[in-house]
Every structure is written in structure tokens, then in C-alpha cells.
């Protein structure tokens, strides 16, 4: 889990090669990256409760375990961001430009069988408090609940088949101090008399994303000796989805901290020429994307190795809406 979060940091660390970048390109690229992150957020909420058993049975059957997994932001989003900040990824991270940037997650999972009718209920919770990592500020919350109804039970040659309805919520922020490893020039601007250099002073990099997801899913599984393979599909509607990014620092203007008067003079000149002024702020560059109700369709599957009451579950997933990949590992006790 820690390595997955740290990997996000390394992609933007001093080992990366940076060049001076155009301010407008930076802003536009950052906005596009925020949109891609918002699109990827609903899929990231699916981590947890992806157990191999389509139905665990009625009470007193129950299970308790932990899941760690990743979903991805598209490779196109990584290229957009890299181009925006004038960044060349090191060779060790070429895979990020091919397969996407991992969004890690984890949950503690519990599931208990229902009464009278053949259903079970699952709960999941993942949380990382501030200060968990010494060099990166991470806040992470993921929780969810689902109810599955068994259409068929795993008996004889008959597989277990269930349909379910669930709700997930995820909220995450990551802040990386000094991610460019020093100052970076972002623009040459004209104020009517001369060109002036705009720079960011050793900026911090931040990401925030959150969403709410209601999901309808169907799953089939079959226990075969000591393994249980499974397949499933899910359709989801997400709402309240947003993602934002920020590159914050003191904005430097010709070697001194930019003032509001400097900003006003630059804006006034560009407007007097009938041009759109650059989007300047004394604290850096920000971008935010809000998605309305969105629809996602994903497929998932895998298998578990069953050792009496101990289950080791390996799962994969694919989001058809964003072409994102996902994977998870679950360890649980289930009786």
C-alpha cells in the first residue's frame, strides 16, 4: 500500500527531467489531467468486497479479511500531465505511459449471511490518517456496503449465482512537497513595456479526488477442490464526483514575489490588446474538474485458493468506460 502511494510521488520527483514550461500549456494540461482523474475515480471505489464466493450462505456464515488493490488513471492522462509540466519520465517508469498511473486503495472487509432469505451483506472500510507517511501527506477514506441475493447456490454441479446492489464512497488527497526539486520558469509575460519572467519557487504538488457510486452487479462462482474461480459484471452510476490538482508555491516575478499590482498590470495590458490574460495567482496553479452523474460498466474475475477457512483471493478488473485496469489481493477467514 505504501509503495503504491510512494510510486505516485516518484513519478513527479527530482529523478525526473524537467524543462521550462509554457504557463498556458501548464494550465491547460493540468485541467485535462484533472478531468481524467475525475473519470477514473468511480472505478477506484470498487476496491474491496470482491470475494470469489458469489454467495457465502445464510447466517451463521461470515467472513473477515483485508483487501489491497490498484486501479489506474489512463496512460493518456500521464502523457498530458508530463507534457504540461515539461517532464520526461525516467526509463524505470515507462510502463506508466503505457498502462496508466496506479491509484492504490485498501479496505478491511466483512460479510455476513442473512436470515430466512438467501442473501448476504458486506461492509468495507479503508482509512489512512494524516501523518501516515513521513515525506508525503496522504488522506484516504473508502467505505462501502452491499447486499447480494443468491439466485443459485453452489451445490453439486451447480455454481453459485448472485445479484447485488451496493454503495461506495471514496475521498483521497495526496500532497508532495517540492515535487519539481527546485524552481521552474513557467512563462515570459509582457506588461506593455517589457517581458518579465514568471517562475514557481520549489512548488508543492497536490491531488484530491472523491466520488459516490451506486452499483448493480452479478457474479458466478464455483468451488473446485481447493480453488474457487469467479466472474462478474457491474453497472454503476456515480454522482458528486470531483478531482482537483494544484501546484502551489510563491509565484516569482523577475526574481521577486509577485504582487497583486503586478498581476493587475499584466491582465490590463492583455485585455487592452484584445487578448485573454494568463490565469495568474500569487500561490501557483490550480485545476478542478467536476463530473455530473456518470455511468460505468466493468467486468471482474479471478480465483481464490482455499485452505480450510483461509482464503487467498486474486482478482482483476476492467472498466469499459475508461479502459482502466484494476487488480486486488484479498486475504480472509470465511466460515
Could you characterize the architecture of this molecule?
With 335 residues, the protein is α+β, with helices and mostly antiparallel strands. The protein has helices at residues 2-10, 23-44, 75-84, 94-99, 260-272; strands at residues 17-18, 62-73, 87-88, 101-113, 119-128, 137-152, 160-176, 184-190, 195-200, 204-221, 227-248, 251-253, 256-257, 284-291, 294-307, 310-319, 324-334. The strands form 3 sheets. The protein has a 10-stranded antiparallel barrel with strand order 2-4-5-6-7-10-11-15-16-17. Strands 8-9-12-13 form a 4-stranded antiparallel β-sheet. The protein has a two-stranded antiparallel sheet with strand order 1-3. A hairpin with a 5-residue loop joins strand 10 and strand 11 (227-248). The two termini are 27 Å apart. Residues 1-21 have low confidence and may be disordered.
Rough shape?
A: elongated
Strand order of the largest sheet: 2-4-5-6-7-10-11-15-16-17
Number of helices: 5
| β-strand amount | over 45%
The largest sheet, given as strand count, sense and whether it forms a barrel, is: 10 strands, antiparallel, barrel
Estimate percent helicity: 10-25%
Low-confidence stretches: 1-21
Quick structural overview:
This protein has 335 residues and is of the alpha+beta class. It contains 5 helices and 17 strands. The strands form 3 sheets. It has a 10-stranded antiparallel β-barrel with strand order 2-4-5-6-7-10-11-15-16-17. A 4-stranded antiparallel sheet has the order 8-9-12-13.
Amino acid at each position: 500500500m505504501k509503495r503504491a502511494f510512494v510510486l505516485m510521488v516518484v513519478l513527479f520527483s527530482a529523478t525526473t527531467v524537467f524543462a521550462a514550461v509554457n504557463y498556458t500549456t501548464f494550465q491547460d494540461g493540468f485541467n485535462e489531467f484533472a478531468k481524467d482523474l475525475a473519470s477514473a475515480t468511480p472505478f477506484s471505489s470498487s476496491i474491496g468486497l470482491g470475494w470469489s464466493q458469489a454467495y457465502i450462505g445464510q447466517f451463521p456464515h461470515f467472513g473477515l479479511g483485508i483487501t489491497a488493490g490498484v486501479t489506474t488513471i489512463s496512460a493518456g492522462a500521464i502523457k498530458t500531465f508530463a507534457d504540461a509540466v515539461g517532464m520526461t519520465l525516467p526509463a524505470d517508469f515507462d510502463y506508466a505511459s503505457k498502462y496508466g498511473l496506479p491509484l492504490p486503495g485498501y479496505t478491511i472487509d466483512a460479510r455476513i449471511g442473512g436470515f430466512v432469505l438467501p442473501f448476504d451483506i458486506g461492509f468495507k472500510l479503508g482509512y489512512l490518517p494524516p501523518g501516515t507517511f513521513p515525506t508525503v501527506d496522504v488522506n484516504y477514506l473508502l467505505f462501502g456496503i452491499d447486499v447480494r441475493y443468491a439466485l443459485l447456490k453452489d451445490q453439486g454441479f451447480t455454481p453459485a449465482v448472485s445479484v447485488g446492489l451496493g454503495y461506495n464512497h471514496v475521498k483521497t488527497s495526496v500532497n508532495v512537497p517540492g515535487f519539481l526539486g527546485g524552481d521552474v520558469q513557467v512563462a515570459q509575460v509582457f506588461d506593455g513595456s517589457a517581458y518579465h519572467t514568471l517562475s514557481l519557487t520549489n512548488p508543492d504538488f497536490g491531488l484530491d479526488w472523491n466520488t459516490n457510486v451506486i452499483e448493480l452487479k452479478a457474479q458466478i462462482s464455483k468451488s473446485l477442490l481447493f480453488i474457487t474461480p469467479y466472474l462478474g459484471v457491474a453497472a454503476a452510476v456515480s454522482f458528486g464526483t470531483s478531482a482537483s490538482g494544484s501546484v502551489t508555491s510563491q509565484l516569482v516575478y523577475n526574481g521577486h514575489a509577485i504582487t497583486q499590482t503586478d498581476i493587475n498590470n499584466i491582465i490590463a495590458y492583455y485585455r487592452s490588446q484584445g487578448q485573454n490574460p494568463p490565469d495568474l495567482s500569487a500561490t501557483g496553479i490550480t485545476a478542478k474538474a467536476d463530473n455530473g452523474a456518470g455511468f460505468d460498466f466493468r467486468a471482474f474475475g479471478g480465483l481464490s485458493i482455499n485452505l480450510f477457512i483461509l482464503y487467498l483471493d486474486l482478482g482483476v478488473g476492467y472498466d469499459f468506460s475508461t479502459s482502466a485496469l484494476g487488480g486486488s489481493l484479498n486475504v480472509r477467514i470465511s466460515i
